[in-house]
Amino acid sequence: MFSQSIKRSYSAATNVSTVSLKLVNTSGTGKKQGLAHLLSRYNFLDTAEKSGLRLVRESEVIGGSFKSTPLRDGSIELKATFLKENLPYFLEALNNTVSKSAFKKYQFDEEVIPAVLNDFAKSSSCSQLKAKDLLYQLTFKNSVLGQPVAYDQVDSISHEEIKEFASKLYSASNAILTAENVEEAALKQFIAENDFLKAIPQKINSSTTTKSYVGESAALRFASESSTAAIAVPVAEKDFATYETLKNFVTSPLFKASSNVSKAEFETYADKKVGVFSIYATGPAPANAIKSIVEALKKGVNISGANKFTESFSGVKSNATTYKLDKFNYVAVGKTTELPTINEL
């Protein structure tokens, strides 16, 4: 049996399909930060079946693309987008990446490391991304969720350690397969003929709940054209639907301070039974923006108007009615002397 989701496509391009294979880090990456980022950059390079160059050229010729994304909890999501009739080719490519990667040493030195360092440089130049990393560090301390996604080079990680991490993460028992706008019969037939994919379980065993903290704050001086002030709230599994609705509410005209919201996120880590709701105010002078956001949420808001939207576009059924902000974590990044402290919110 396999954990599979087949979604209806709302795109006008109904001949375009997507398949994602998520490898869930159920045990944590250990004390070394950046393993998932480094491993993710190995994806879609050489395998036992073909070279990475050949894979790229073939996929481009038949109108498809691949993407590999490291996640904050040490998981990795591989995604393929392609024309509907090419499902077998792209499923095989995803399978070969997680079960037959060559992990060549020269590619680690010449391709993986330079790409990872470039990713880190980009994330380090953005006040909003720095604020997000800081919020997660406050919320989860030294657990895997409290670490940055981009490899920061603080820990030395070898080629052999990447291979060892892959041997643990790239297991069918950690996999979740999701498909959108595909022929279901063709998908099931391919899975039945593939040893790795057919071994994917219906449900991944949950790990213990990750401990979270609230009421924390931090400030980071950072030279940038824009500063960021942001808040975050750790969310228990039972409240996931409410905070998914709240995310949609604060970015809609229903929320009187929505124009001050630069970004709102609700990210869940189901196997760790925790989520994080966050709101960011980013700009040359976001002090008044974050104050107005927090003030409005502390007074309490009726979020029921976002229930139908949440169910239609997020796929989450919600009966949420009102929400009132209590304790939260807060970070200020940039010109911190011009941003409020947590006691001023």
Automatic annotation (TrEMBL):
TM helices/strands, residue ranges: none
A matching Pfam family: Peptidase_M16
An example Gene Ontology molecular-function term: metal ion binding
The keyword Lipid metabolism appears for this protein: no
GO-annotated biological processes: mitochondrial electron transport, ubiquinol to cytochrome c
InterPro entries (UniProt xref): Metalloenz_LuxS/M16, MPP/UQCRC_Complex, Pept_M16_N
Domain Peptidase M16 N-terminal: 30-151
Family in the record: Belongs to the peptidase M16 family. UQCRC2/QCR2 subfamily.
PANTHER family: CYTOCHROME B-C1 COMPLEX SUBUNIT 2, MITOCHONDRIAL, METALLOPROTEASE
Name of the protein: Cytochrome b-c1 complex subunit 2, mitochondrial
Organism: Hanseniaspora guilliermondii
